[in-house]
């Protein structure tokens, strides 16, 4: 009877359960923000990894990751098919390939977890697996230019652990969340000693949360207020790139700008999706009007390179304060094809279009306030946003999330922006073409929000801040070193234990053979 049902149990444990747990993890992210669901799913995946070797644990991690990224990033298909116009098969293949690639990182964590399950439960659940998860997540944010979307730490944005963000960043929060799941797993599956350790940690949790300094501890407000206006033009993606509609679009943003007296006016990414050389005649009067009114206008457009062969995705500051920022981190397979140049030519990415801006660029200023500007996808990389810190006193992100209208991508991207504000201890201004535009406090709280899919203008007074959080000072470097060291030592220790076990088994076999001969 047991043998007959073995295939069914294996299907259940290797496919259905990890798939369900992967989908459950997604509920912790925006727009649902049910972080206990994420913790419950992590407890389940720890149980799945503890009972098997590295091969099956890797497979379970892969299924878990595929379900998680499949449910969390389904909107990639919507963008590619509904808005970019790709055939349903091509859109499905592109989305599936991304999901399969991203699922390899939970699979890596599973392989390490399975290879080290000889360790005591306490060490395994509280140190080894969290370290492996953190390392895999850091690798995901680095490999092939990186894709750290849906990093586990984002689910804590509204949870008690979010006070750790200024200290360790989103990946440190991922580590903490995995340790919390490990603590709860020990109550269920650990030895008596492990359960006692877990109970002590749970009892100390309120003290830990209370002892973490508030976000206000790390940075200080400057004695000035900046009046800010964020414009959300709500231009449909299909219309944004139609040459006949460039002039009406520019007119819409210009009219919205003239109806506000704010010192800083922020337009979305590529509000003018043309080269600056093509709209010189329109920019000159806009610049003159903004100068006369004492305003600084941040306009998204393309800026030509010196040889005019390529274009930067840029923010141009017009009016009282002049300047320009060129996007540094381009979207893989959207603006750039990672890998050798022949791959770019094969896919068709070498179209003379977007190129990356210089790594070091002067900051744009508005009324004496230094701005740390990022464009679109760039704000997903906390370690890159901190390049402009602590010099920048206010963060600005302009984006065009219209490609993902009606999907959870809008709420997820806003959640990411909130984390950047919390990590840096800076207020953040977010201008999105079709939403969700927002003004975010230095502590990650939403101050003003424009609903998605509507033309809107946000007005608010923000207080710039100075100083550096520990995360701004050190970034992800401590996490890289610590997680890599944990994984390396764990694998070496596991290998030593396996060698010792085999050696002892050979000794026992020899003794048994000698006894049989005697």
TrEMBL record:
<dbReference type="Pfam" id="PF00795">
    <property type="entry name" value="CN_hydrolase"/>
</dbReference>
<feature type="transmembrane region" description="Helical">
    <location>
        <begin position="32"/>
        <end position="49"/>
    </location>
</feature>
<keyword id="KW-0012">Acyltransferase</keyword>
<feature type="transmembrane region" description="Helical">
    <location>
        <begin position="479"/>
        <end position="499"/>
    </location>
</feature>
<comment type="function">
    <text>Catalyzes the phospholipid dependent N-acylation of the N-terminal cysteine of apolipoprotein, the last step in lipoprotein maturation.</text>
</comment>
<dbReference type="InterPro" id="IPR004563">
    <property type="entry name" value="Apolipo_AcylTrfase"/>
</dbReference>
<dbReference type="Pfam" id="PF20154">
    <property type="entry name" value="LNT_N"/>
</dbReference>
<feature type="domain" description="CN hydrolase">
    <location>
        <begin position="231"/>
        <end position="470"/>
    </location>
</feature>
<keyword id="KW-1133">Transmembrane helix</keyword>
<feature type="transmembrane region" description="Helical">
    <location>
        <begin position="61"/>
        <end position="80"/>
    </location>
</feature>
<keyword id="KW-0812">Transmembrane</keyword>
<comment type="similarity">
    <text>Belongs to the CN hydrolase family. Apolipoprotein N-acyltransferase subfamily.</text>
</comment>
<dbReference type="InterPro" id="IPR003010">
    <property type="entry name" value="C-N_Hydrolase"/>
</dbReference>
<comment type="pathway">
    <text>Protein modification; lipoprotein biosynthesis (N-acyl transfer).</text>
</comment>
<feature type="transmembrane region" description="Helical">
    <location>
        <begin position="86"/>
        <end position="111"/>
    </location>
</feature>
<protein>
    <recommendedName>
        <fullName>Apolipoprotein N-acyltransferase</fullName>
        <ecNumber>2.3.1.269</ecNumber>
    </recommendedName>
</protein>
<keyword id="KW-0808">Transferase</keyword>
<keyword id="KW-1003">Cell membrane</keyword>
<dbReference type="GO" id="GO:0016410">
    <property type="term" value="F:N-acyltransferase activity"/>
</dbReference>
<dbReference type="GO" id="GO:0005886">
    <property type="term" value="C:plasma membrane"/>
</dbReference>
<dbReference type="GO" id="GO:0042158">
    <property type="term" value="P:lipoprotein biosynthetic process"/>
</dbReference>
<feature type="transmembrane region" description="Helical">
    <location>
        <begin position="123"/>
        <end position="144"/>
    </location>
</feature>
<keyword id="KW-0449">Lipoprotein</keyword>
<feature type="transmembrane region" description="Helical">
    <location>
        <begin position="164"/>
        <end position="187"/>
    </location>
</feature>
<keyword id="KW-0472">Membrane</keyword>
<dbReference type="InterPro" id="IPR045378">
    <property type="entry name" value="LNT_N"/>
</dbReference>
<feature type="transmembrane region" description="Helical">
    <location>
        <begin position="192"/>
        <end position="212"/>
    </location>
</feature>
<dbReference type="InterPro" id="IPR036526">
    <property type="entry name" value="C-N_Hydrolase_sf"/>
</dbReference>
